[in-house]
Amino acid sequence: MVLLSAFSVIFNLGWSRQSFAEKYSPEHPVVQEMVQKGVAFLSSSKDGLGGEGIALLAGYTIFKVTGDPDHPVVVSAVREARNLAASFSRNSSGEVNSLYVPSLAGMLLASIDVETHAVQIGQIRDFLLRSQKRHGGFGYLRGELDDSGDISQTQYVMLSLWTMNQLGIEIPDEPIIGAINYMVAAQTNDGGWPYQFGGKKPEPATTTNSLAAAGFSAILIAGDLLGLYRSKVAENQEEEGIIPIAFRRIMPESKRSKVNIDRTRLDNATKRGEFWHNANPYNRAIWHYYYVYSRERYESFLEITKGKQQKSPDWYNQAVEILQAAQSPNGAWGVKDTDSSLSPPVCTSFAILFLIRSTQKAIGALNEAYVVGGDSLPDDLTSVRAVGGKVISKTSTTSIDDALKMLEEDGKNETEDELVADKMLLAADPNQRKEQLNRFARLLNAKEPKTRKIAAKLLGRGDDLDLVPALIYAITDPDPDVPRIAEQSLRLISRQLDTHHLPKEKGEKLSDPTKLKASTQWKKWFLSLKPNYVFVN
């Protein structure tokens, strides 16, 4: 490996815990400039994205930044992912030997549009699940390691299934439980993870920062998939606005109680994993950019276990400065500081995903594609910023209270076109937010359809189960748009983004029997959570 002398000195100091004069975040101008240069490099590298999964990774990265499904690299990646999924529908693995590529394909399609690609996502999910080995791990399908589990591949399968689950695709518990048991068994005595593990207690094995990060990420992701890290403290912090409320998953308590995991054993494994990273500061090595992205991932999930997210942690600040020094004039990473194991497009993708805090962003917003790619965005993306998982225009008035006053005051409806629900933030204080939501619920009875549409949309952002009956009532609204907006909000609250009880096409007329049938189905879902609730017609 070739290292620039000055750059090498910086890296070999390790990623220490220290204070920085500059506090970086994904919205910081320096970070934004680095990201945009990196995207420009990936966008101009269409002829250099050959190789296993590289085009998928580049397309996924560009979409995560731009939210543009029509970007040429994204379009090409989607085509590749759909073709790959079609090969799995024949109950075969096709040419696939490792699980990195199908995992990336599932993440890409789910992030872009879970409805349009529902069939393909299901095919990829089923392929990944049937590829699980008898010991619970995931790894190579053929060759001398086909009986072994691969810690890194297990991580990417868990991330892909987690992404699908966040966007409403059902993932059964048992394979995830098996993966957790596998990861706990594979952990080395010092708290790290080996490269491969075949199901028996490993011999004393060395581990690296990259492997330890992969194992730590895999076990944290799997635990979150089962809903094991939402302690009462974390739930309270969600209510206080510390953790974005969209992270809270809705499922019946009966389902949670069926998870058969030795929680003490799992918690001990995560504590040992964290101890390993604290005791082994990172020094620059091969697979560097792979580690960078894995670091962001496990730190983001570790924040959830601790019940608090950080906007500008020291480990992020230090890495931003290091990545800034490593970026080439053409926007790429992996050129100035050559990584012999990865190509510049891969290094660049991993660096960008780190810089935008892609994992924390996905945790903080139920559907990142919905937030970034929503129809309320202005043409100039430089005029928007993300706040609490919602997109806010810097030039817009975003006061919920002002909007409510405007909507509640008779004769002021000419200003409603200025009010876009996606640009409004509900109060962080739980009592204030509850009052705001109740006022919006009352506006579902307003005379003007525009007012009812805005109210139906905002109620979905509130993520409050108590307002579900009001939204179910709104499905019967006489306006042609209000019922569909109400169902969209119900899909967000229920985490059932691929569920449609109303016709998808906006132009299709909604008959009273159709609306009644849809409201009945949503009532059944709500009663599965609150069986004692009584709907009043």
Please give a structural write-up:
With 537 residues, this protein is mainly alpha-helical. The chain folds into 2 domains: 5-372, Glycosyltransferase (Alpha/alpha barrel), CATH 1.50.10; 402-529, no CATH class. 53% of the residues lie in helices and 2% in strands. It contains 23 helices and 4 strands. The strands form 2 sheets. Strands 1-2 form a two-stranded antiparallel ribbon. Strands 3-4 form a two-stranded antiparallel ribbon. A hairpin with a 2-residue loop joins strand 3 (384-387) and strand 4. Helix 2 (29-43) runs antiparallel to helix 15 (344-355), helix 20 (449-462) runs parallel beside helix 22 and helix 21 runs antiparallel to helix 23 (512-529). It is globular, with a radius of gyration of 24 Å. The N and C termini lie far apart (71 Å). Mean pLDDT is 78; it is low at 1-21, 231-257, 365-398 and 411-422.
Flag low-confidence runs: 1-21, 231-257, 365-398, 411-422
CATH architectural designation of the largest domain: Alpha/alpha barrel
Total strand segments: 4
N/C terminus separation: 71 Å
Strand order of the largest sheet: 1-2
Number of domains: 2
Question: Order of SSEs, N→C?
Answer: HHHHHHEHHEHHHHHHHHHEEHHHHHH
Query: Could you say which structural class the secondary elements and strand pairing correspond to?
Result: mainly alpha
The residue-averaged pLDDT reads 78
Q: Mind telling me the C-alpha Rg?
A: 24 Å
Number of helices: 23
CATH topology of the largest domain: Glycosyltransferase
Form type: globular
What is the C-level CATH assignment of the largest domain?
A: Mainly Alpha
Largest sheet: 2 strands, antiparallel
Q: Level of helix content?
A: 40-55%
* Strand residues, percent: under 5%
